[in-house]
Amino acid sequence: MASEARPRLAVYKFASCDGCQLALLNLEDELLSLVGEVEIAYFLEASSATLPGPYDVALVEGSVTTAEDVERIRGIRKDAKYLITIGACATTGGIQALRNWKDVDEFIRLVYARPEYIHTLKDSTPISSHVAVDFELNGCPINKAQALEVLTALLQGRAPHLPPHAVCVECKRHGTVCVTVAQGIACLGPLTHAGCGALCPAFNRGCYGCFGPMADPNPDSLTAHLLDIGVPRGHIIRLLRGFTGYADTFRAASEKLEKVAQ
Amino acid sequence: MSPSLPRVSASVAMPKASLQQVFDNLRAAGYMLVGPTVRDGAIVLEEVDGLDDLPLGWTDEQRPGHYRLTKTRDNHYFDYGVGPHSWKEFLHPSRLPLFSVEKNNGNWTIRPAQEPPPRYAFVGVRACDLAAIAIQDRVLIGSEFRDPHYAARREQVFVLAVNCSQANSTCFCASMKTGPKATGGFDLALTELPDIFLAEIGSEAGSEALGDVPWEAATAFDLGRASRVIQRAERQNGRQMQTDDLPDLLYENLEHPRWDEVATRCLSCANCTLVCPTCFCTTVEDVGNLRGTSAERIRIADSCFNRDFSHVHGGNIRPSIRSRYRQWLTHKLASWIDQFGTSGCVGCGRCITWCPVGIEITEEVNAIRAKAAK
Ligand code: SF4
Ligand code: SF4
Ligand code: SF4
Ligand code: SF4
What we know:
The structure holds 2 protein chains of 2 kinds.
Chain A lengths: L7 E6 L5 H7 L3 H9 L1 E5 L11 E7 L5 H13 E7 H6 L11 H8 L23 E3 L6 H13 L10 H8 L4 H5 L15 H4 L16 H10 L4 H8 L7 H14 L1
Parallel strand pairs in A: 1-2, 1-3, 3-4, 4-5
Chain B lengths: L10 E5 L3 H10 L3 E8 L2 E6 L10 E6 L2 E6 L16 H4 L3 E10 L2 E6 L7 E6 L1 H15 L6 H7 L3 E5 L10 H4 L11 E5 L3 E6 L2 H5 L7 E2 L2 H17 L11 H4 L5 H9 L5 H5 L6 E7 L5 E8 L9 E2 L2 E2 L4 H20 L9 H4 L7 H10 L4
Helix pairs in contact in B: 9-11
The structure holds iron/sulfur cluster (4 copies).
The site of one iron/sulfur cluster (SF4) has 9 residues of chain B, from helix 11.
């Protein structure tokens, strides 16, 4: 963006935990230079003072879960030159998309004393189901180095460099011992987009798939192998239905496993 | 006590505990010791201080996609096969800062990232890994195009090899003619017997590393015991690679249905290439600041299984898992020979063990051969 004035940035929240916005605020040192390079015009998590649109860049956290959300995201799209979704909720529907496999009305009756006050959609859906999205930044939460890379690339007018290969590559680059091979732990790393630095395997946990599916994932092979080595089917289904469970690949894989079980 | 140092190519017997003296000598000579140690359920390669760090009494059980540590009854230091790490990490690191640039008053300054690499002493290098190092020597410093980073590390390495006393179901060094006995490329080569180490002296540096060690010339009895240990490892090789019809077999079968079949199992996760001690591919990553006034270039390990690897101007030349698996197998076993005059595979079995779904390079070749185009 080679305009004279600083590009104007807006940050929005939909159904989410605010963790990705916090990851932005966690940029700390870089935050000061960010303020020097962009005008933060709308970012309620950081400041209640807001400036009116239009904006050059809108960062959107959270998924769409209400009729108002649907209207609001359309307005945001109109107001923004670039719309970038940040985090698992905005890019895939998030953990709250678990409701998509269940009856939401039943939840509402169980949880709320006055269910008639609750107005919500049946599904939690990613932003891209409603408006055109220019770039999707994965993660639950997003990785701050990746967030910085996306903003830097935008400022410099180049494509962000976020390789779409498997988490396994990060495991191996760090010398982490594979938890599936050495301990029989189910791990979604071979299906999952890199970006977290293979955090969970480094702590002896399988990958939870926070960064969503990688390029060209092969879920059938991995799930068949996990069943083969004795991981219970229900465990694999629950693993696939995590933070990005409604992403096409993971969703299809968990539904297939469920169907075979029935 | 031995009066002097053994001569090069001699075989000597030494008490097991005196391996610590060898370590101390190497450290005194300025080496950083890297060797096997137990971490996170595997025998990995890391900096080691002394004998206490070695996997005494541990062995490993390896099958396709499966690795487990178990305790043995013999208290041996080196009763295990190659693990998830290889020496490649130290000679050809998976992350290497190359240089940084900075803009001041409109001028760019370039600063090479010049941390002098440590002088490594590798402890416990197996025969297949010696062969792998020789292959990387050929690839990375064996022509007019030399990788200076590899050269700087490689030239000063001390190699303490260990002959294998057992082999895994995933090993096929014997058929690749790379092991299990270390035949060259080392400073010292040990064979572990219940009561002693038998040490073959490979260089002056290896001889000097035995300073103050109470060695004796090896007896015929000891030599016989050592060769039986190595023969056992050879018999235990769990598989074979038939190589007499390679590379033609693969070139003539580039459209074999087996490529489609293996693509249904392969995850394109890149684990095989990253654990392989000969795979050498890298890419560079530029990390810049927001204002575009400074940046760093870092070399990182890459793989032909990563989709971006084959992305060229105009599109991706290997858009399917089928084409990527075929690239890996044909490079390792066929086009590597055309390029470098050797196979790209030494039969260490790492790609078989550490493939999360247990795909076996040997089986894939067999399957192609079984229904080969004539
Ligand atoms: S631990 Fe998971 S992410 Fe890491 S290499 Fe193994 S399967 Fe891949
Ligand atoms: S291809 Fe497999 S068996 Fe051959 S050297 Fe590489 S990792 Fe070892
Ligand atoms: S097999 Fe792939 S990763 Fe290995 S050296 Fe060849 S192209 Fe590189
Ligand atoms: S052969 Fe195995 S380790 Fe290699 S990319 Fe395919 S699934 Fe991953």
